[in-house]
Design a protein that fits this description.
- By secondary structure, the protein is mainly beta.
- It folds into two domains: 3-122, no CATH class; 124-401, paralog of FGE (formylglycine-generating enzyme).
- It is 9% helix and 25% strand.
- It has four helices and 20 strands.
- Strand 1 (3-9) and strand 2 (12-18) form a beta hairpin.
- Helix 2 packs across helix 3.
- It is globular and about 60 Å long.
């Protein structure tokens, strides 16, 4: 892709390029051209302009490379304007607060990419419908990870990255005067790190708030009639599964997404069944043969002596679906109640299974920055009390098509 322009953000030099269009439809693919970017004088705000042609109103997103275009792994959160669903035309405008998404950084190898697609909204990716094998395939897991079984999951969108502290705060700021209350304020190492210290009730209510803020129908309600939006308290909500708003993934959705379209592998990548610090933020130990990291203990890049040792979202290479941090960084809340024997229950193989109807704990997936490699496997099932909130737990959202 040929650079279209360049500018300086503080000391950071950025080049912008038009992306290739992606499309899953049979119509003409959306096209992005004439990408231009400038920094507002005296600020870290970047104004990005582009021309968009398409047969409908495609979804536009922005990604950033910090290595000269080799990988576009930084997904800006603090963007407004012509992102998401955009009407075609010239001089579409995106405002990016780079100071929040990439604070105190400098590189002459940064590239900004604008992509138009009719396949997924904004910062989410499409997980296509289909069946997959759920559970431990390699025989090195825990008893609750078997028997391995086939699950059909309908198509859905999932956040590319864990919800950041910046996005959490943006939605909470909108909450003011909108009737939402939380048990925890939410914490984060930095604006572009995952939010943490949020309990299950907090994140479910936040999903509703994010939905309302963006004009979608909330998924969670306080009554079986699905008339009163869940905004306060600690009750187990009812779910409007056909709503188009944000919600937590089911356990089956999470594992299908984590596997990235590959089958039978230990981790979210498919080129090897080993793990190293070059691939994930976790606690490395020689106790596991598949942990081959040359560095041991906490991730050396993020171990600064101040808990938590989280990493910026999207720091590591994404899996086959384009999802980052499906292994390590922070644990991610799921919808399902936890049952150690659930995989032997007939309900586990139902289409779009949503887990047991009741329980004491909610599912957690993915492992964290202070956990061993065994807990970062795709098949690993963890759980926590819905009231639990600490600096190893965060989340990401999904939406229906």
């Amino acid at each position: 892709m040929k650079p279209r322009g360049d500018f300086r953000l503080g000391q950071m030099v950025l080049l912008t390029a038009a992306s290739l269009a992606l499309s899953l439809s049979t119509l003409a693919a959306p096209s992005v051209t004439n990408v231009r970017a400038t920094q507002r004088a005296g600020t870290q705000i970047v104004d990005i302009y582009y021309n968009l042609s398409a047969p409908g109103a495609p979804v536009v997103s922005v990604t950033v490379s910090t290595d000269g275009g080799a990988a576009y792994s930084l997904v800006p959160v603090n963007v407004t304007g012509a992102v998401g669903t955009v009407t075609p035309g010239n001089d579409r405008h995106i405002e990016w607060n780079a100071g929040l998404d990439w604070p105190n950084q400098f590189s002459s190898q940064v590239r900004v990419q604008v992509t138009a697609s009719d396949s997924a909204p904004g910062s989410m990716v499409l997980i296509a419908a289909g069946s997959f094998q759920m559970g431990d395939a390699l025989g090195d897991g825990y008893s609750e990870e078997v028997p391995r079984h086939t699950v059909y999951v309908s198509a859905f969108y999932m956040d590319r990255c864990e919800v950041t502290k910046s996005l959490w705060d943006t939605v909470k700021a909108w909450n003011g005067g909108n009737g939402y209350s939380y048990d925890n304020a939410g914490s984060g190492k930095a604006a572009n790190h995952p939010v943490h210290t949020v309990n299950w009730f907090d994140v479910v209510k936040w999903c509703n708030a994010r939905s309302q803020k963006e004009g979608w129908t909330p998924c969670y309600y306080t009554d079986a009639g699905l008339t009163t939006i869940y905004k306060t308290g600690q009750g187990a909500p009812y779910v409007k599964w056909n709503a188009n708003g944000y919600r937590l993934p089911t356990e089956a959705e999470w594992e299908k997404a984590a596997r990235g379209g590959a089958a039978g592998h230990r981790f979210p990548w498919s080129d090897t069944d080993t793990i190293q610090h070059s691939r994930a933020n976790y606690y490395s130990s020689s106790s596991y043969a598949y942990d081959t990291s040359p560095t041991r203990g906490y991730h050396p890049t993020f171990n600064d002596g101040i808990d938590p040792y989280t990493s910026p979202v999207g720091y590591f290479a994404a899996n086959g679906y384009g999802l980052g941090d499906m292994a390590g960084n922070v644990w991610e809340w799921c919808w399902d109640w936890y049952d150690a024997a659930w995989y032997s229950n007939g309900g586990a193989t139902q289409n779009d299974t949503r887990g047991p109807s009741s329980g004491s704990y909610r599912l957690l997936r993915g492992g964290g920055w202070n956990d061993y490699a065994r807990l970062a496997r795709c098949a690993h099932r963890a759980y926590g009390t819905p009231l639990g909130a600490n600096y190893v737990i965060g989340f990401r959202c999904v939406r229906r098509l």
